[in-house]
Specification:
This protein is of the alpha/beta class and 733 residues long. The chain is built from 21 helices and 31 strands. Strand 1 (2-9) and strand 2 (18-21) form a beta hairpin. Helix 4 (125-133) packs across helix 5, helix 5 (139-150) packs across helix 6 and helix 17 packs antiparallel against helix 19. It is globular and about 85 Å long. The structure holds adenosine-5'-diphosphate (ADP) and zinc ion (2 copies). One zinc ion is lined by residues 443, 445-446, 448, 461, 463-464, 466.
Length: 733
Amino acid sequence: MALELVAVALPVPLRRQFDYLVPPGWAERLQAGVRVELPFGRRRCIGLVLAPPRLSPDDGHDYKAVARVLDEAPLAPADWLKLLQWAADYYQHPIGEVVAAALPAALREGRPAQARQARCLSLTVAGRQALLDLPARSSRLRGLLAALDHEAGLRIEVGADTGLDAASLRRALAAGWVLEQAPSAPVVAASELPPVLTAAQSRALGELLAAPPGFSASLLEGATGSGKTELYLRLAEQALTRGRQVLVLAPEIGLTPQLAGRFQARFGAVVASYHSGMSEAERNDTWLAVRDGRVRVLVGTRSAVFAPFSALGLVIVDEEHDASYKQQEGFRYQARDLALVRAREAGVPAVLGSATPSLEALAQVRAGRYRQVLLPERISGSPPPQPQLIDLRLYPPRHGLSEPLLARIDLHLQAGGQALLFINRRGYAPTLLCEVCHWLAPCPRCDARMTVHRTQGRLICHHCGHQQAPPRECPSCGSTRLLPLGEGTERVEDALRNRFPGRRVERFDAERLRGGDRLARLLDEVRARRVEILVGTQMLAKGHDFPALSLVGVINADQALYSADFRALERLGQLLTQVAGRAGRAAESPLPAEVLIQTREPAHPQLLALLREGYDRLAERLLVERAEAGLPPSGYLVLLRAEAAQMAMAQAFLRSARELAQTSPALGEVQLLGPAPAPMERRDGRYRAQLLLSASRRGPLHRLLRSWLPQVEALPDARRLRWSLDVDPVDLF
Ligand code: ADP
Ligand code: ZN
Ligand code: ZN
């Protein structure tokens, strides 16, 4: 006898779908994309139907039955589910976890797929009387009336999570105790008139619009401040007039308010943002509003790429080169790449913008797959300043700051400018040193040093989060001569406060800006010129627009010059160009903008090439080097990582995995490297090792993965240690 089965994705880390029995008469309701409740082991689980039910011969397996259907219609349009399936296959990640990453928590937990309805209600005189008269057992009704008594014209949400139920509200409305007003007009209205485009912008817009109909990918290459965002707005406007939706990706949560703000000023309330700083309820509402078409422009970070657009018309990826587009744990997807897949599937244009395109994007341009659109001039007319080097061997720094740098800061402040100091390390100092025996404070759980944090008075490991009080004496020799070694943001901030008393110095790093909208508020202060000196990490290098900023100082560029990471120089080139681009963006800047880079390696050939010839030429050189080494974008990489209590265990697992690959008929041209210990062997108390797979073409590599990974998953060791697969890894550790 045949069984009727339905394939479901469950939020479990297994690379497979699960089959369940379809109860008689349920087949029609079990459409692909509908959520179901299911028995799984001893638990109940929420799953997502992947395909309509099918008949299958009875194989004697004891299938369980679907317990409940949660949705009357699929959660999202069909191409949404297709994207998830494509991603699960490409990244070889369990489909259930991919689905989980694409859904807001409330939907994962099985809440109704309906946006909360805020209703504008007020209590009538009769209602106030009823509140006094109602018996105590009518607690829900009383709760509702009491809430409204608190605040007239309250906008309240009715639903299970608010404790206010729809039945009580219906009764109160019928009895005339409560009055409902029409919901008020949208909160944000479009207010901004578009500026007249510059000649360069008009030409670039023309080129962007000249893309053939259907899917296309364009790389909009323009210096910071060249007016790219204005072009995004023009393209979005066109998509909106055609009744389509727009996806705009930004690399970081800190950049979304600024970008969303510009779209909102132009288009009003149809613009929403989506990022991890929002409450789960807000994310859920926004997700549903995108699906239902109430949101037309979504500006968000990585996970916004999974929003359920029903009429996508345009995809924009701002700061395309940014490494933050890659999810670094769990489901390790690259949002920029998925955005392109989405555009291709939807048959709509994708525009990638950057002042410093990734080598991947440049390679696509060369291969003729992306169109290149250049926007060479800045709106202000002034070209980005030419960076100058300060040789730290001639001018030894104190607390990271050399005299020539301090003198220039002073000059710019006197003239009414602002200065930005960039340093790649947060905390006070990268480690604590014993001056007598040269002991350096180690993390007990990692092969790494503890960072000194002065404001918290702690030593903190940036790799595992381990914290401890700084020792009073050296654990190794007992000396009390312990000194912070090197510098981080806190130390530079302190030194600048001491040197420039009365000037307002602000620090921008993860510690200082934790929580809420602190970053947005501080950025407003900077634009209002209330902050005179900015000290910060990466987050200051990107995207921001500071009209009065005239001096940029880079505390130290050298780390990248010695790095073993094959992307280090590309990153350094991007970072220095981006950070330099913060200076002199507008005519308001009082002095000609300057960029100063402190280094102990003023003759380093790649650094000089970057400064003399600019990022584009550096990128060209690096593309040649990558091609010679067979590294991305001239090759494709996959990393199998393992972590265990002992190194031997991690290595043994990877060796077994390697043997499986080596004997696989699908091995083909794929090369295997390792297993080898990870660059940081021990992290958070666990030993780490990795096996690298590489190939010059994507196809063979992915063919191997499809047959090999299920075998790896079936290895007995696979259940005894932590392992993960990283397709197109960004960091090789
Ligand atoms: P990018 O995105 O390339 O960094 P923006 O679009 O943010 O550049 O433009 C830089 C600045 O110039 C912004 O303050 C923006 O409002 C302004 N701007 C852009 N285009 C024009 C224009 N055509 N006329 C006047 N100002 C413009
Ligand atoms: Zn010592
Ligand atoms: Zn640690």
